[in-house]
Amino acid sequence: MTSKLAALDRWVNDVAATTRPATIHWCDGSDTEYQALVQQMLQTGDLIELNQQTHPGCYLHRSNPSDVARVEHLTFVCTEHEEDAGPNNHWMAPADAHAKIDALFEGCMEGRTMYVIPYCMGPIDSPLSRCGVEITDSPYVVANMRTMTRMGAASLTRIEREGRFVKGLHSTGELDPERRFIMHFPEELTIKSYGSGYGGNALLGKKCHALRIASFQARREGWLAEHMLIVGIENPQGKTHYVAAAFPSACGKTNLAMLIPPEGYRQNGWRVWTVGDDICWMHPGEDGRLYAINPEAGFFGVAPGTSEKSNPNALTSISHDTIFTNVAVTADNQPWWEGLPGTPVTDWQGRPYDPANGPAAHPNSRFTVSAKQCPTWSPKAEEAQGVPISAIVFGGRRPSLLPLVMEARDWAHGVLMGAAMGSETTAAATGAVGVLRRDSMAMKPFCGYHYGDYFTHWLSFDKPGAKLPKIFHVNWFRKGKDGKFLWPGFGENLRVIEWMIDRVDGKARGVETPIGTLPAAGELKLDGLALSRDTMAELLDLDTSGWQTELHAIGEYLDSFGNRLPSRLRQEQLRVHQALHTP
Length: 583
Ligand code: GTP
Ligand code: SPV
Ligand code: MN
Fold this sequence. Notes:
Layout: H1 6-19, E1 23-26, H2 31-44, E2 48-49, E3 59-61, E4 75-77, H3 82-85, E5 90-91, H4 94-105, E6 113-121, E7 130-136, H5 139-148, E8 150-151, H6 153-162, E9 166-171, E10 181-185, E11 190-194, H7 199-202, H8 205-221, E12 224-226, E13 229-234, E14 240-246, H9 253-257, H10 263-268, E15 271-276, E16 280-284, E17 290-293, E18 298-302, H11 312-317, E19 323-325, E20 328-330, E21 335-336, E22 344-346, E23 366-370, E24 387-395, E25 405-407, H12 411-419, E26 422-424, E27 436-438, H13 451-459, E28 470-474, H14 493-504, E29 511-513, E30 516-518, H15 533-539, H16 544-559, H17 567-581
Parallel strand pairs: 1-6, 3-19, 4-5, 4-10, 7-9, 9-11, 14-24, 24-28
Antiparallel strand pairs: 2-3, 6-7, 6-8, 10-11, 12-16, 13-14, 13-15, 16-17, 17-24, 18-23, 19-23, 20-21, 20-22, 25-28, 26-27, 29-30
Helix pairs in contact: 2-5, 12-17, 16-17
The structure holds guanosine-5'-triphosphate, sulfopyruvate and manganese (II) ion.
């Protein structure tokens, strides 16, 4: 097969000349194609069949044990000028980067099939969507891309019509961590990834395209590409507010996106609609509001901790037609991870389970499932114009200081809250876990350009005629002296969201403080929750001296972006700092 688009044909031929595959397969995205890939992977051992009685259409993939998460230290943004990548990215000169990685691609597909995957990020008919083509030698990547994106014939048609697409070249390579690079060339709309078969390193539509490249494009074109979930909250009157929330990797986006209301809320008629769990593209609409689409078509969710109690919607979604990566299995061959009932017999590496080897499922083990399988999947998620956003929420894992919820006084203050975000690191990237680091807007690993320019871009949305969402900051992860989480989290988070919506609708007054507006006494509805007054007080207290230290640290962090830091943001930090010193 070939394409009507000469530029695409030429690129595919050039890649084939370098990588020298035995055959080239253009993916059409059909069921037949998917089933054939699965059969082939069952034969090669890339997939292992799970219990088809309990989990029809479910398979397990075990990745190489050295290849289980994103590798931020091997991820590069290769802009012409080093300063355009910013201190938030690793940089390499484009010519050097191409030379280095092209050498690895030389002959790397010999004797094997090269797959050409045309995909669309976002609904096929949406003007907000963007297309790409990923070339890979990994059938596992093809199967995952089919679930995570709109992949195949319809996307190819759109690409041929538009003539413009992001080029992504991937090979699993030898899985040698010394020969592994994830390189982005935003000015060339090009991605090259070698030596990893895992998630965000290999499914190039996801973090590489929909965040790093898209954020770069979004800045030029006046929109936002963000690491956010999108959720619709329908109140008993039938009105739905859409909320977008940025939490760092493995900090609760999937959980909030699929939230099940507490019993009393359910009885009163509250409903929650899932629009997206990881990535959000937001464009200003003609009415001045921000409209969001989820560029993805599936969920690549964290398995451990997903349970009937924490996320029943996810559990229902993954009961069939799901690919599991690096989970454990039970005696009767069902997928298993920490948080589920039952006992593992085989760990994520295929060894007999022995607690001495650590958790049975890898902490970053994942499921890949079509969004359509989610019981709360919103019909609006397929709509071309996207959903209007009422509130933007920032949050991270902060064991102390940050209150359960606070609201920014205005857009600039909200941008400061997002920029100042911090969180303890998680297993979603290789490296130490539990270390507090700044992760502005949860985009530290994903912003494809200088953070200073990114903050300027965020601030630029505040202009005459704009009807911007309110901005909030939440912390589900505050810990008490006993080291336990103070807030029950999960479904109960709806109580906090209800307060936000009341603020949006002008129904809650709140209390103004130097750090933002907090819920006034009695405004958070806590009935039915066994939370002591002391715990609530601790969750909402304002430790002035702790905040003074925090504002000082935020100031130093902002200064690290040098002369690209918008002075407006530094002014905002000074304003809050001064307010904290005013008795
Ligand atoms: P990525 O897919 O990596 O971007 O992550 P995500 O933000 O979608 O993460 P996810 O929702 O899968 O969160 C995973 C972890 O957060 C699990 O360990 C959950 O138990 C924990 N978590 C989620 N929501 C809450 C909450 O409200 N409270 C507490 N304490 N933990 C939570
Ligand atoms: C994340 O790490 O934020 C993820 C998983 O959502 S990955 O696709 O690997 O980036
Ligand atoms: Mn993510």
